[in-house]
User: What shape does this take?
Amino acid sequence: MLQKKLCLVVTFDATAAMAAEKYCLERGVPGRLIPVPREITTGCGLAWKAEVDQEEAVTAALEAAGIAYSGVHRVII
Assistant: This one.
């Protein structure tokens, strides 16, 4: 059984999640695209998941790319 832990989850509106995935993967930004966890009900249904200590790196990268995100959450998943 997988161990649950506190994770950073960045949610998006519309199709920004796909642009975020492409940008982050090309630049080595930590994390991966996941379905939005049940604990969060927002946006397009996709979210960027990363380690909690990577919040600044992830949000800075998205802002540098001009990719709008709807929220930054800390969720145990």
The two ends are 12 Å apart (CA to CA). The mean pLDDT is 93.
